[in-house]
Amino acid sequence: MIEEGGNKRKTMAEKRQLFIEMRAQNFDVIRLSTYRTACKLRFVQKRCNLHLVDIWNMIEAFRDNGLNTLDHSTEISVSRLETVISSIYYQLNKRLPSTHQISVEQSISLLLNFMVAAYDSEGRGKLTVFSVKAMLATMCGGKMLDKLRYIFSQMSDSNGLMMFGKLDQFLKEALKLPTAVFEGPSFGYTEHAVRTCFPQQKKIMLNMFLDTMMADPPPQCLVWLPLMHRLAHVENVFHPVECSYCHCESMMGFRYRCQQCHNYQLCQNCFWRGHASGAHSNQHQMKEHSSWKSPAKKLSHAISKSLGCVPSREPPHPVFPEQPEKPLDLAHLVPPRPLTNMNDTVVSHMSSGVPTPTKRLQYSQDMPNLLADEHALIASYVARLQHCTRVLDSPSRLDEEHRLIARYAARLAAEAGNMTRPPTDASFNFDANKQQRQLIAELENKNREILQEIQRLRLEHEQASQPTPEKAQQNPMLLAELRLLRQRKDELEQRMSALQESRRELMVQLEGLMKLLKAQATGSPHTSPTHGGGRPMPMPVRSTSAGSTPTHGPQDSLSGVGGDVQEAFAQGTRRNLRNDLLVAADSITNTMSSLVKELHSGAEAEEQAGTEKTREGLPPRGTFLSVFLLHTWTKLAGCQTHSTSRERSQAYGKWGGTA
Questions:
Q1: Which of 29, 473, 530, 568 could be cross-linked to 587 through a Cys-Cys bond (beta carbons 3.0 to 4.6 Å apart)?
Q2: Helix, strand, or coil here: 53?
Q3: Can you give the pTM of this predicted structure?
Q4: Does residue 48 have a known ligand-binding role?
């Protein structure tokens, strides 16, 4: 007893699962009943994965389960309904890729419980065929035009006229869907529902039915049906517009623009819940937008419309013939084949399709004639299909095609079973059949080997794509080491950039100093180089490309430096920083030696000038220049980070000896 009670509670929980999930979505806060109903049914459609099945797949499932041969009032059990639903989802999984497979068992359970709750409220355990077709055709995915055409085919007679009794029955079944999601007070069935759809028309054809159902606005009792399709179309539409109430930067889905307030726009969540701010009111007329157009596109469209360049709007649906097509004449195409003996007459069909009796000839002469007759029959069948412009329009046409194919297959089987071959060709046919069997066996073996190879490669690929535990343990260490190496590389690049920048600044200073020395040497040979004459020391100009990359050559770092320094340092682009600094040190040493000689030659004049400057409180110019030169040499010696102590001692010795 306890186990039975637990099973009953589990079954009830499964039946109520879809409704519990729907209540969790909080659709009841939507103010307008039309949007509330459409949102609920759209949720049921997506939760049951019916949006992945179009109307043509539904028709195929109906035929596979024999529902097309049953009368609309025939009742089927819940177990047979479960079989129909199972075939729908299993066929769906065959069409979907392996990465998008659905849970078939869960989808079957959700849809079955929803249909039973909607259409078997009395608990009889039976549903009519028309109820199943109406519900699945309404809730499946695909185009609304295709749905309405199929629904009209179920409600029309052989002359293509809609029967109002069938329409009333369809509305009764279709309006059970809003009632199932607790929207019965707004969209429940009434006896006057048919006349609200077609108030004056007496003869309703297909085009008139489509015009009424796809009009804007549609019939009031079915206004939620086209809205549910529009919801499916705009779920992923992006609007780069800010909502005037919640101030979100963009919108998804519908966008609503007030026709009275200037530039007042709401997202679908705010509009559905009745939010308003500022001077806007819920009583204002709102325009629904399902797409976004840029201002430039709107302007071009307005100009084209004013100039009459915009083409006329296409009709909402193509115009279909008023008269339904006639069924195929199966007896004319493939007449029944009687079972005959060797001496009986056979019927050969020419391309015209008229049967003519002939005597059976010998086997060698009869086979080509039979093949020619079969080819002519197939050609006439193809020509007949080409002239049929709407083969897939009516569901009855598929039944006739199935019967045609079945009869044609039975005819071929009867010919193959009743036709006896002459003994002269028995050995030849046996050898040919043996060779064909051998060829088939070889092809099957090759196919089996190819499948095994594909399976082996797939396993190898999966094993290679899945990391082993050892690799998983080594990966963090490798990543940490790689991160340290990158950090060290960045530090070295920054250090190299700083050295290059410092070197370039020193070269600019030396260039200015050498220009000053040359100017004083040409003007007054006995005068020491000073900063006199009101000429300021040129300051270094920072290049934007100095710190961008540390891999440029020496010539790049000497851009903007005078010719003397470039000649001293332009010893080849392949030298490294240490060699460039050593060459620079040699050049500076030579320059310093010539400078010191000039200083010694004019010592007396410098002492006298220094005495006068000291009296005036100013430092001697030669002393200032010497200090500046020593400071410059010290900075250059410090830039030689990679030079050896021997090279440094040689450089200092050269400087000291020269001094």
A1: 568
A2: coil
A3: 0.51
A4: no
